[in-house]
Amino acid sequence: MCLRSKFQIEVEQKKCKVFRIGKAMALVTSPVRKTPQTIRVVIIGCGCSGMAAAVRLVEAGFRNVSVLEAENRIGGRVQTVAFGDSVVDLGAQWCHGEKGNVIYETLKNENRLDLLEHTDEESTSFKCVRSNKEVLSDNEALKLSHIFTKLMDSEDDLHSYEGSVGAKYTDMFWREFAKLTDKPDRAVARESFENWKKNQLSADAADTLFEVAATDKIEFWDCEGDNMLHWKDNGFHSFFNLLLKTKNYKTDMGLLGEKVQLNQRVKYIEWQRECNKMNEIKITLDSGKIIMADHVICTVSLGVLQENHEIMFNPSLPLWKIRAINGLKLGIVNKFLFEFEKPFEPLDWNGFLCLWRDEDIQALRDTEKFWLESVFGFFRVESQPRLLQGWIIGSHARYMETLSKKEVLKSLMWMFKQFLAITVPEPIKFIRTQWHSNRNFRGTYSFRTLYTDELRTGAWDLAAPLIDEEGKPIVQFAGEATNSHHFGTAHGATESGWREADRLINYYQ
């Protein structure tokens, strides 16, 4: 055996320094300064955040960038599919706002605002239908709508409120209702309020507004301008072509070329290694394949982190990071899409909201169709008059995913009969989303709960990278849940990807 000399041992000891993250300590080798041309960056996930980070790094001259995507497609929670006469979005659907929205601003800078179209105000006017087929008069609906508008404009009141959004809205609604001189029936008001809350939950993705913290509304920044810009007949994936600088990302990945690897699910990330190996992060895939990296940008969803972080990261993540992962919540919203032979009738309806009467909801809860309680409405799809889109939220959305497609459609057709005086024909095609049961997502978008506030954590802790004492980022985190002010949005996810790419770029400058 060849023994090392005393001199060799002393040299190696001098090259080692103490590495700290929280209370964890390990001896590491002081690395030779690397450059963007030599370092290896592995990005986990190719949704909006992962794609944005990869493109930014490649444009900055980083040559060795790899993107590992667990699905058989890119896009994450943006998924545009062929349906009807064109395409539909199963995930992110609108460009929310113009000023301060990085997706809108990217389109504007590229002179491609022609991809977007303003949503006609009339198309967002819906009929309110009770479960006995009674349609609320426009006058009744308008009076209640005025109250809902006041609730939406009550953000200033939330600044001094430390309870749930649900509690605050409930108190405000009934106080405003009491002020009406010519009041609608109280039962109708309650039914409308219940439906309005479900509609709000489709934006928050929570099971109930009583778990949503007031800080969720305060911290979220709306982008000025039209918040329901739709993608004409091209779908949200039009943005990917622009981002990747290609005509069709499905056949040509543009700037990312061969850097994206599909069907590559990460199992372990060994991010803190022994002294002579510290410069490398070891990534093990489900397939058993091993990839070595200098930096990792993790863009998996909050739900995936919650389910897998204990086994995914070795050593375990610091306690402050775990607190953020467990303190935030990833909710669920699912869609139903129907294609009919002819445009849905009545032709002058843009859609309808489902108001359950007390006696009908009680009867429903005793049946196998109980989950229909959280289906709050059905709406026309822009530019596709033969399509109808329905929405479901919360725990019932998760339950719906466990049923067969045939069972789901049968129950929804029963619901049409319950609410509508006309006969709705069988659709020629039907699809539903299942974002929670997909182990690569486990939900749709994140929000702040009262528990989040109790733990005094938030998106900022989830976003904070794991770094060494010299400030070198080792494992970074991106995704909509890491965005403190645009969480739950595709533009928030894109922002976070650029943020982490810029962190690396600045480090190597």
Number of strands: 24
> Helix proportion of residues, in percent?
25-40%
Rounded Rg: 25 Å
- What overall form do the CA principal axes indicate? globular
Q: Which segments are poorly predicted (pLDDT under 50) over 5 or more consecutive residues?
A: 1-30
Helix-strand makeup class = alpha/beta
| End-to-end C-alpha gap | 44 Å
Strand content: 15-25%
Number of domains: 2
CATH fold annotation of the largest domain: Polyamine Oxidase, Chain A, domain 2
Instruction: Give the CATH architecture of the largest domain.
Output: Alpha-Beta Complex
Major sheet strand order: 10-4-3-14-24-23
CATH class of the largest domain: Alpha Beta
Largest sheet: 6 strands, mixed
On the 0-100 scale, what is the average pLDDT?
92
Annotation field: number of helices: 17
GO molecular function: polyamine oxidase activity
InterPro entries: Amino_oxidase, FAD/NAD-bd_sf, Flavin_monoamine_oxidase
Protein name: Amine oxidase domain-containing protein
Domain Amine oxidase: 49-505
